[in-house]
Design brief:
This protein has 404 residues and is an all-beta fold. The protein is 3% helix and 53% strand. The strands form 6 sheets. Strands 1, 2, 3, 4, 5, 6, 7, 8 and 9 form a 9-stranded mixed sheet that branches. The protein has a 5-stranded antiparallel sheet with strand order 14-15-16-17-18, with no helix packed on it. The chain has a 4-stranded antiparallel sheet with strand order 10-11-12-13, with no helix packed on it. Strand 16 and strand 17 form a beta hairpin. The radius of gyration is 28 Å and the shape is elongated. The relative contact order is 0.08.
Amino acid sequence: MKKYLFVLTVFALLQVSCSKDDNEPGFKEDSVFQESQFLGYWKHIQTRQNGMWMEISTMCEVDFIEFKTGQLLNVYSCYFLPETGTWTFNGKNILKYDEKNGTKYQLNLVEVSDAEIIAEVDIITIEGYEEKQTRKYKKVISTLDDYYKYFTNGYKVKDINNFTMMSINSELNILAGVKDNKLWIGRFDANSKEQIYEKKDREDFSFTKRIHMGYGQYETFNVNSCGVSDAYNDNLFKLAFSLSNEHVDYKSTSELWFSESGKKIDCENDNFTLTHWYNGSYVMRYYNSVACLSQDGDSILSGSEFYFPAYECELFPINYNYFITAVPSSNSLYFSLNRIIDDGNSSWSRNETKIEAEQSNFKYAITVVEKNTFTWTFNVDITEYSGKKHSHIVKQDVSGITDM
């Protein structure tokens, strides 16, 4: 089967012609599909070619029909995830696609029963190729428990109305999808798989992204999937996108999403670190730039000439710009005052205090005992490899720094 058959649901416009007659077979007044919380799902299982029904491979992109009380509501394209044994919507609701962005895809229902649907499909690809198909859809989901098993790996999404699931992060117990045409993230209990909370974006989710390709050149990509690759807290998430277009089969990109404010920050280069910082802020460090971001994602300070350690050490922020480091090196621990961006303040001190251990493989624990505008006081507990323990008091001068 030609490649276009596997991807014909991408960028599509679906015009539906279907009966809403309650007497239609399989859709009686007492049907389960009249429940507002649940919709039935049918999966494309066969295509008729040369008078014969041909099975659809699990590894293909496959249509799922969403049906309720005799009315075809949505059609989604889905991928099978072997690692979880579930299907995931790639976010493409064919009903909501503009014809100019891809394949024109018209589906007309021929037969509807409790078990299966037969539909005629007219396909006009973006290159102008036309084809007619007859497809058979099998009902695979008739209860919420079926839905959770088939699509969400058991995670119990509280409200699946107008919801399309795109990805599962089983390590974080987070699902990502599109609900009411907006980005949606839900977090779940690892044991019961009950939903703990959900976040929904304020803006409509876009299934295209304009990406900088270098040298001032940009290309538009289609969003094939979106997931959460990291969660820094219940407000800040790192989103990972899988993209493609007519020139590139696969490209990935990521962005930070501050769910409370709705702000998003593109991460063209994924090679960055994010550190929890002063007063709920974050320091986002690339190899050649740094920015301190508020809880809402607004820039507090930034620059390309900066100091923020990328090596192992303890960090104690005094304000957004100034901080104290405790750096282990050989058999010593060094305390010093630092600043991220040079703010022109020439009166600040870089006093350094050194604590020594007997050997290089020592362990340490640092506690802030007292802090004021002049001095920060630390207690340092050292444990030697031999088991010997000793404690030290370190006083770090912080007088004269800029209040920022």
